[in-house]
Amino acid sequence: MKLTFLGAAHEVTGSCTLLSACGKHILIDCGMEQGEDIYENCELPIAPSDIDAICLTHAHIDHSGKLPAMVSMGYEGPIYSTVATHRLCDIMLRDSAHIQEFEAQWRNRKAQRAGSEPYEPMYTMQDAERTLELFETCHYGEEIEIFDGVKVKFFDAGHLLGSSSILITAFENGKRASVLFSGDLGNKMRPLIRDPQMPPKADYVVIESTYGDRLHEERPDYIAQLSEIMQATFDRGGNVVIPSFAVGRTQELLYLIRIIKEKKLIKYHDGFSVYVDSPLAVEATNIYGGGLTEYYDDETLELLRNGIDPIHFPGLKLSLTSADSRAINDDFEPKVIISASGMCEAGRIRHHLKHNLWREDSTILFVGYQTEGTIGRKLLDGVTSVRLFGEEITVNANIQMIKGISGHADRDMLLEWLANMPKPPKKVFVNHGGDDVCDKFANAVYDELGYFSAAPYSGDIFDLETGECVEKAPVVRIPRKSSAARKRANAVFERLLLAGKRLLSVIEQNRGGANKDLAKFTSQIDSLCDKWERK
């Protein structure tokens, strides 16, 4: 058994790990990188068509976003997830495909005017739809044998509706080995969903470390904080603009605002409106209210038993069309605007920032982690202006963040989760954290729990019989200024590499074919090489 680390190694997004066992190749997550790229990631060592199965921890794009790209390059196997993850991916992957296609159209208009090469989207809506057909769903605690000698079991990770930690057990050459992938572990006592389940026994653990070097502050009174910010902003005549992840965080905010309205905590603005301006968030809100009771916490179940909708209330307005979105800024009454994306890198939130950042009476309220290099992080760090839609916008608005409203477990919660394993693992691998954070948390795992630990880089391969690294990849840091351009170039080159690996796989499939067909195939490959070979 071998474990190859590909994505989210010394980086916070782009989760992707390859497990090779019993002659099968199993991918755990296949996420898209978001925000600034720090290291060059190792390419997938095999063709997508040679991967036998994918196990998905949850629906967030940094864990699921490249699944359609895999399908477009030949992957045809099953994608295992919970029911809720499948339903959320149904909207999130379609939304991502729409963004890919829209960006390609925009870039190609520019390319055509400049006489440049056309831009190919990472994947299309058709790829996303084919991907969704491959999902095979299961329930928490249900053990599934996906191949002879390979079993998987999902546990509640408490991060998002349907989010999971995944235990994979393999029996190979008379030996048994198990690997537990934490996925993203959730914070405690959050609205709607349960706390993370404590982990089962496993030989090895791959654990995230998003907050692996810090603690959440003493749990604040979120309702009091939100009420105070809303009251002060409304009294000034401004808007509270909340960049929020469309899935998970938006629904938690609606849960809190429902309580604020119910208790009449905002004075003199009783009928204030709350706009959810994101088609994705609207669809996700409908899924959260769609009877997936298997994933709710006891408090939410009690509300439902009493006939109370936990996330809908008077004054809530769901914006679907572009016209709906534009009309929000024609409404001059103080209001709350919740819009995606949560890090302000894309989507309708950028329009609301354009209309509100320059206003001294408005508040931009962050309620989640902001990755280094994103607009959200820059605003929190105190920039005086940002560029939106080709225009420099002065930052006069109040920039605030509600502390502690995080979807991730902090350092002590992560350590507590590990400490609750029934038996110490042979080794803990730390990923999905900032460059220094991965190392710091790996050291904390050893210092405080006594578990052997490592923080692999992309391309590192570990033998799960010995727990040792058997192949160390070169570590290549991307120059900061060229990160965005390099990321675009790398994405295109990665598609080319995957196409090459697919070609090798197809060649192997034709072993033993008719000489006439093989000769024709060879001529076609030679013609391609003659066209593209650089002397």
Describe this structure in words.
The protein has 535 residues and is of the alpha/beta class. The protein contains 15 helices and 23 strands. It has 2 domains: 2-214 and 407-503, Metallo-beta-lactamase, Chain A, CATH 3.60.15; 222-401, 3-Layer(aba) Sandwich (Rossmann fold), CATH 3.40.50.10890. The chain has helices at 61-64, 67-72, 83-114, 125-132, 222-236, 249-262, 279-288, 298-305, 322-328, 349-356, 375-380, 411-419, 435-449, 483-509, 515-532; strands spanning 2-7, 16-21, 24-28, 53-55, 79-82, 135-138, 143-147, 150-156, 164-172, 175-181, 204-208, 240-243, 273-277, 316-319, 335-339, 363-366, 385-388, 391-394, 398-401, 427-431, 453-454, 461-463, 469-471. The strands form 4 sheets. Strands 6-5-4-3-2-1-22-23 form an 8-stranded mixed sheet. It has a 7-stranded mixed sheet with strand order 7-8-9-10-11-20-21, with helices on one face. α3 packs antiparallel against α4, α5 crosses α6 (249-262) and α12 (411-419) packs across α13. It starts with a strand and ends with a helix.
Q: How are strands sequenced across the largest beta sheet?
A: 6-5-4-3-2-1-22-23
The total beta strand count reads: 23
CATH topology name of the largest domain:
Metallo-beta-lactamase, Chain A
Multimerization status: single chain
